[in-house]
């Protein structure tokens, strides 16, 4: 064909439109390139016949079950539903002679997700119907059909959901009544050279559009694309080859030596639950990953990384043949298991030990099933990264970290791309945040250019990672992405790109980068701050699960050490930890999933508590089994209490019912209290040893040094409407709304409440975020609130051990709050036991405390340590932290004095100047319309202390608030009679010389029943030299990492010395160091 000169540089935008029109679906589809991409498409009988069987309810039957059912004929255009139902199709295809010698594909668009199965029950690949960019509906039946093709049969499992669940995504709750239409089921053959030209033009066209007009390459691309349009003739396919030749000539120009190198890796982010339940995730992983295996066969250069060990385990259980194929592809290096953790967990709320278990479970699975652990901590999509992660990552045998989520920050652009992330203790990990700012890239020239443009550390390193493939709901890379990647490998005008294991990228950076910058401390995520509070029951149960498993492991280790026939419940504990870790997935515990997910996690927590209770009882039976249960009333005796924290403590405890009368009559009346409310008898358990037990007798005396025991008391103040709670330490004035108007410390002679202000003020905020309902509390929400003032308060308990007030308050016309405010005789701490009946719409309830304390920094507990954050709003970085995450406490201290706000399940905190707030409840309506509606019970406390935070025992007090002394269900009278010692009367572990060291975890070693593990950490941020004595059997002690491997063969480097005679080990700690010891008996 002949043509005139183009003059295209004079009308570039018109030429760009011309090229777009040439390659896209539009009104010119009958004459443009698209018109001839398909060679032949055949539908309906006799080529394709469909039969269907619909599974009952929301069942997701196995292939074996489904294949046995009775199928009925089905037709194109039929719709199937409602949401979450499953429909199995038996598909019979007859490939006619027309296709002989050609590649033939089966295309089925169910508008939903689906999976193709062979008649033998092998999962072959996933399908994604509908019109989105994730559309992927073709299955290659043969690369070259013979003229005598036999009839073929296979199955399609249609799931009535799309990649993003059911309904309008995250702005609304899921729609339970969606029906999905089967749009097509066709046989198809492409004109492969036309398809290749189409991919050529996609690349050239995007380069013409995205490369700056200042670069000649932009014009070369536009000219090449325009020339192709001029050469191509849709009625004459012999024009395809000359058109492709123009493309080849354009692709010949390569980039220079200093070009940026992109390391591309396929992936598909599969949220382990989010807009769909766990059960659907099991199928999503199978669908997405099987599709990738198909692509690997066609594209030998293709590499794909998958994280989240839980999904691997589900696959192993439910799709064993697919799991084996993945293992095979892992051996060839194409399928890359990555990530190191059990799930891609939230990193704000899980405890330190939970994070340890995420890695322990994850790395052990990788080692067992893929032969090696992952050295990359892979977490593209989590809502903030705690400051202890670098140390934990290092201790888990990994050294690299990947994310990109901080590119979502709403106020400040994070300043680094490739950097050393330095944690709380000084450990660092080489960290990279993909500069394309996505984990679902589409393999376009524009995105590759963004990888350079947005890279903030090009002065030190000239490479970046690039994660391509559809995700969130799975899907993954598509064929066209791999085709484009092939064309862009080394192309002038673009950075170079190659597919590689992410480790290759990190190793290259490690060996070549100069002077990488460092970022110290947490990677605070400036978005999704509502996730510290939404779905509050989930957060409560997570906290309780962490503590009950801690107790079970400690007690089971003790029981095992007494008698190895006890049978340490290792498998059951592993199962329970896997469940705890599963619910810590980054859309479950943050509260950003649909209602179905929380009904599932409710059941999981129920299982955890029931099973852990049984295990705890079993361990206690083994330790105290020789003693009769505490049933009858023994005369003149006491009961036993157990302390599972590592320090000695004194607490008020409830006397077990059978002994109530004895205590009520025999005990020193100042040390016994019969509660007015429920008749429960309280007494004092004094000086109970850490990790030990003690018998509490009616004759127990409370040692207050030389001081007299002063009972706690409560009385109405002479000032009308106020009440006073008072003990030896403090005098607290509470008004009719439950507000603390004065908190006077007798010993320090100082007032804690700021003049004219108050504590425990309930503030109700408008909570209408910008976009993401369950996810976000926005900064402007703080501008609009009112303080609740409809309180009514009465005197509750009147001492001598506990004095309390009972508050009732309406929050609105539909929500109410009751609160017991109590002060014991033995502490400065004021407790708030709270019940809320909550039926609000987009409101946030906070408790606020305004103290007479001045400090630029507040201290918040994080995993195995604390983090300090500003109390001012100087810069946009400070303002962005208007709501932050903390674990068991937040503390505001100045020189000489401070106060901690403790909690038993809350995570959303803030401190602005001298006002501390704790977020109690939110009321988002999407994606779960029922989020947090109903009854809630939770506790928090105010704990004033002399000295600054570092001089206080706030860490210990916060543990005690969460881990009460346990009354043991045994009758120790025979021991008392015989003068024998109570089991654990001598603590099983004791620490001396370092009050800043906390012993957190005791467990049996993995794979080694003769050893046990003790995990400690330095909690305040200083050095320490601690002596740890064990009374369990031990002949040696070694420092191990969290995978329980020896850190070095020789521990004689001054950090650890073992005194075998006293079974004492001396451990040197650096600030915030986590130390794991392995004792072998
Ligand atoms: Zn995610």
Can you characterise this structure?
The protein is α+β, with helices and mostly antiparallel strands and 1081 residues long. It contains 20 helices and 56 strands. A 9-stranded antiparallel β-sheet has the order 35-36-37-38-47-44-43-40-41. Strands 3-2-5-10-7-8 form a 6-stranded antiparallel β-sheet. Helix 10 (389-395) links the parallel strand 16 and strand 17. Helix 1 (12-23) packs across helix 4, helix 6 (278-298) crosses helix 8 (320-331) and helix 9 (352-370) packs across helix 15. 52% of the residues are buried. The structure holds zinc ion. Zinc ion (ZN) binds at residues 269, 271, 381, 472, 586.
Give a quick set of tags describing it:
1081 residues; 6-stranded antiparallel sheet; 29% strand; 9-stranded antiparallel sheet; alpha+beta
**What is the 3D shape?**
elongated
Quick one: biggest sheet? 9 strands, antiparallel
Mean pLDDT: 95
What proportion of the residues form beta strands (DSSP E)?
Answer: 25-35%
Helix content: 10-25%
Strand sequence of the main sheet, in spatial order?
35-36-37-38-47-44-43-40-41
How many DSSP H or I helices? 20
Gyration radius, in Å: 33 Å
The separation of the N and C termini measures 88 Å
Low-confidence stretches: none
Distinct bound molecules: zinc ion
Number of strands: 56
Assign the structural class, choosing from mainly alpha, mainly beta, alpha/beta, alpha+beta, or little secondary structure.
Answer: alpha+beta
